[in-house]
Amino acid sequence: MPLQIDSLLRDRYRITAELGRGGMGAVCKGYDDNLGVEVAIKENLFVSPEAERQFKREASLLATLRHPNLPRVTDHFVIPNEGQYLVMDFIAGEDAKAILEKNGGPLPEDQVVRWARELLDALHYMHTRPQPIIHRDIKPGNIKITPEGRAVLVDFGLAKLHDPKSTTTVGAKSLTPGFAPPEQYGMGRTEPRTDIYALGATLYALLTNQLPADSLEQAMGQKKLVPLRQLNPNVSPSVAEAIERALELKPEDRFASAFDFAAALAQATRAAPVTPPTQPDTVARASETVPRADATPPAAPTVQVVRPRPAWVIPVIVVAVLALGGGAAYFATGGFKSLGAAPTATSAPTVAVPEATNTSAAVVVVSTDTPAPPTDTPVPPTDTPAPPTEIPTITPTFTPAMTPRGGGGQIAFVSERNGGLPQIFVMNVDGTNQTRLTNQPEGACQPEWSPDGQKLLFISPCRRKTAEYLGAALYSMNADGTNVQPCVSMIGGVYDASWSASGIAFTFLENGQPRIYVAGSCGSGSQISKAQSDDSQPSWSSGGDRLVFENTSRAGRPTIYWMFKDGTFNGSSPDQVTRDQDAVAPAWQPNGNYIAYVANTQIWVVQWDKVGFGNQQLTSRGPNDDPKWSPDGQWLTFESWRDAANHDVYLMTSSGSLQTRLTDDPAADYHPAWRP
């Protein structure tokens, strides 16, 4: 039974508004009376016993997903003779389609690419789960942009588990014409590259304000894909080429994974400035039937958008069209001419298509010629599965492209590669150009950048990585290693420095007991820890008004707390940031609310003011230690000696994906710090 406004679903979820309706049911906004929070509820009214069993299995897996660019599935259930229901986080904001319509024309490239990289991070996370998940309905209406500007992929009503050995799913699946590749029309298996195509179509639409020509109509020779830069010459050639590769009709000609697509887009944004192509005499439409022979702009990238179709494919495609039923009427009308007429979250016409059978799986091939390889993409298309979440080897040609905008260009770290005595090194964020900065006779550890990135702090003496540095003093130097000067020296030992505009916070080992001090600049510091407190490892908030730190005495185990910069706190004791874990090595996210930390040798994140609730584990292999944020808060660098291998410096996104080793020297590398 369709959801009704003001109705109470399962004696818990009060329906408050309809957000959208499609062929299989509605998406509604609701209120969870039990928890007192707003939720989104997706209904599916087409239920069979087998579909019900599959729904429960897939919904249970969706409920395990934890990613900043995906909503959480918090509940799922089936009401007999009524429907299936997914309950998810309600994501505030506008969808990308509404933003595009409000803009009245193509959106800026930098904005679209930023969203794309966030969404590709989410897809990489989904596609590389132990049981990969395919979304199958990516389109502008299913991308929410939060008030903070974060892109969130919503509406998992069509998501399914990926089984590479199977081509069947119970009942029918739906699709949105213009955003669906040929395999969703029954011409092959849906797989992770199905989502690659749909996201490529979405980016094409956002950058041109036009729908790409429908994939089935392209396969039938009725339409051709108009090159993206012919519709919007302001898009850079490399970005256009990456998107057009994602829109290849054959899955094997697309990017092999979301990881590779993200790499190509990131490299594209570092390419040369745009050279606008020559404008055609008339403005082409994204779905025009026969483009002018001279319409291709000379400055556009060399992309083979349309290929000859073997004659034997025609009967197979005709069968697929006949199987569409109502879909044939859609194509008879000529399809959507612009994005303004595209299906939306509020009125999304979907075409029910039977899943491909084992005999039709091979019909995904629509041409036999070899595609011209793109010039900007770092990895050629292959048929290999998506790479695992953890990437154990250094990939120097890829990683610099993945550096987020707003991130610094270097990472400082400690290495014991020169005779075993630790010294400070710097490297590019891809692991290249590893250069030693210090030559301290008693070693140097714990680099910490100044807020402007022009200076480095470090401690010495330091013979090896340890929890406490008895007798160590704090030194400063220029970013290139010159002008080494004493900074803070106190009897007992000074270490764990954190530098912000509010000063330098550090741990002082006084009579064997760690306490936190703050110095306005190099010189003496003032104690802010309370007596007998065992506080250490301070980390400043981005505003410099608070500190998180680790304490071993208050809770009877290592626990992370926060306090104000003068050492005061709310109430009689500082507020906990973590709970029920041995938590150490806190690092406050720049311009954000998350604290990265280490518990049980794995890296976690949690919001600083949630008293430990809602924490998320980012790594599964280890041991790991010392996470440090990128300046824009989107990435983390950390040290790891996983699988008893080398002790090295790694990089990953803030969701834990794209884990990449940056150093591979046989000697130990540790204590990374990202330059602002």
Q: How does the SSE layout of this entry go?
A:
Blueprint: E1 8-9, E2 13-22, E3 25-32, E4 37-44, H1 49-62, E5 73-79, E6 83-89, E7 94-95, H2 96-103, H3 109-127, E8 133-134, E9 143-145, E10 151-153, E11 160-161, E12 172-173, H4 192-208, H5 215-219, H6 228-231, H7 237-246, H8 258-268, H9 313-324, H10 326-332, E13 353-354, E14 390-391, E15 410-415, E16 423-428, E17 435-436, E18 445-449, E19 455-460, E20 473-478, E21 485-488, E22 494-500, E23 503-510, E24 513-519, E25 526-527, E26 535-540, E27 546-551, E28 559-564, E29 575-576, E30 583-588, E31 594-599, E32 602-607, E33 616-617, E34 624-629, E35 635-640, E36 648-653, E37 659-661, E38 669-674
Parallel strand pairs: 14-37
Antiparallel strand pairs: 1-2, 2-3, 3-4, 4-6, 5-6, 7-9, 8-11, 9-10, 12-13, 15-16, 15-38, 16-17, 18-19, 19-20, 20-21, 22-23, 23-24, 24-25, 26-27, 27-28, 28-29, 30-31, 31-32, 32-33, 34-35, 35-36, 36-37
Helix pairs in contact: 3-4, 3-8, 4-7, 7-8
Detailed description of the structure:
By secondary structure, the chain is an alpha+beta fold. It has 3 domains: 8-89, Phosphorylase Kinase, domain 1; 94-276 and 286-363, Transferase(Phosphotransferase), domain 1 (Orthogonal Bundle); 410-674, TolB, C-terminal domain (Neuraminidase, 6 Propeller). Helix content is 16%, strand content 28%. The chain has a 6-stranded antiparallel β-sheet, with helices on one face. Strands 14-37-36-35-34 form a 5-stranded mixed β-sheet, with no helix packed on it. A hairpin with a 5-residue loop joins strand 18 and strand 19. Helix 3 packs antiparallel against helix 8 and helix 4 (192-208) crosses helix 7. It is globular and about 75 Å long. The chain starts with 7 loop residues before the first strand and ends with a strand. Residues 167-172 and 271-406 have low confidence and may be disordered.
